[in-house]
Amino acid sequence: MEEGQIEASNLPSKVWHSEVTVSVTGKPPSAVEEEEEETAEEADREVIPEITEPFSILDVLRISAVLDDTTAQLSILNYIMPVQYERRQSISMKKNNSLEKLSETSRISKISTPFLPKEETKLPEIQKESQYTDEFNKMQDPVFKTPTRQTIMSTEILKKIQMDRQFFSDIITNTMQELEESGTFTSLLKALGKERENKMHFYDIIAREEKGKKQIRSLQKQLLNVKRERQAEVQSRNEYIAHLKDQLQEMKAKTNMENRYMKKNTELQIAQTQKKCNRTEELLLEEIEIREYEQVIVEDRIEKEKIRKKIEQDDLELKSIIKLQAWWRGTMVRKETGGFRLPKKDKDDGKDSKGKGKDKDKRRGKKK
């Protein structure tokens, strides 16, 4: 067994996950440890594809021997527990523990012969070692079941130890089964990763609880300060209320006299305002009449301006019509269309006139 432990310790450090320390110690890591874990996680992520490759048969046997030794130690720890806590365990838990022990010792012997062609001679040795550990556990059970540390450890601590022991035992058995089947231990890495996440979540909850306690303390201090301030404020306000009551009695006497004076004064002011309102009403009526007259004058001017513009527009239209008619008549005369034709002369004169007319038409065309 010692040789198996030494050979397993000689394995590369990258194989062992960085989360083992967190799951075993149960202490929150420091800032430096967090940085180391981050770098280790990055390295593990890169190494995972290499780890998934199955180990050789010799490595599987070495690791299985180490894990078997670990399960034996966990079973010893189970029997070290005090009697009071052992009595509280259910019968099903005891049966499960006994079945796990039997399965752990028998798993190594159930490795198939074609999978182990060269290491068949080592299997009997491993089986003998597992039998020796079982016999040792049976011999030591009555001794370790005595309540030696019952007065020191409380029930909750014992429960925690039992839960942790069961957790590690389950992980190791699953890892051994995976090693026997495929030669890898990805289930171990997954379990450790999950446990690390749970631990970090637990530490976050503790940090939030501490923060909440600090906030509660600060709020309690603020509440006490606010209460003191409110008490002082209430006292000062009571004094101020008493002072105001004294002033109120004085003010009542003054107000009675002032009311009589104000009544007469208001009557006079009402009469004056009535006169002013009547005067302003007359002025407003006059102003309304003036504005109505101005509106009529403006409308009359606008109407006259419209008539004038209409007359001018009619004159312009008439002039343009006359010009258009004169232009049309001129074109009719020049082109000798309609009733505007010149008298015919001799043929020679006609030819000359035609030639001249063509020349004139050409000139007119050029001008156009």
From TrEMBL:
Keyword Ribosomal protein in record: no
Keywords assigned by UniProt, alphabetized: Cell projection, Cilium, Coiled coil, Cytoplasm, Cytoskeleton, Flagellum
Entry coiled-coil feature ranges: 254-310
Domain of life: Eukaryota
Annotated localization: Cytoplasm, Cytoskeleton, Flagellum axoneme
Any GO CC annotation of this UniProt entry: cytoplasm
Chain spans, region Disordered: 1-45, 338-368
Amino acid composition bias (Basic and acidic residues), ranges on this chain: 338-362
Pfam families: IQ
Biased composition annotated in UniProt, kind: Acidic residues: 32-44
Keyword Electron transport: no
A GO BP annotation: sperm axoneme assembly
Subunit composition and interactions: Component of the nexin-dynein regulatory complex (N-DRC). Interacts (via IQ domain) with CALM when calcium levels are low. Does not interact with CALM in the presence of Ca(2+). Interacts with the HSP70 proteins HSPA1L and HSPA8. May form a complex with CAMK4 and HSP70.
Function, in words: Component of the nexin-dynein regulatory complex (N-DRC), a key regulator of ciliary/flagellar motility which maintains the alignment and integrity of the distal axoneme and regulates microtubule sliding in motile axonemes. Binds calmodulin when cellular Ca(2+) levels are low and thereby contributes to the regulation of calcium and calmodulin-dependent protein kinase IV (CAMK4) activity; contributes to the regulation of CAMK4 signaling cascades. Required for normal axoneme assembly in sperm flagella, normal sperm tail formation and for male fertility.
Family: Belongs to the DRC9 family.
Protein name: Dynein regulatory complex protein 9
Upper classification of the organism: Eukaryota, Metazoa, Chordata, Craniata, Vertebrata
Gene: IQCG
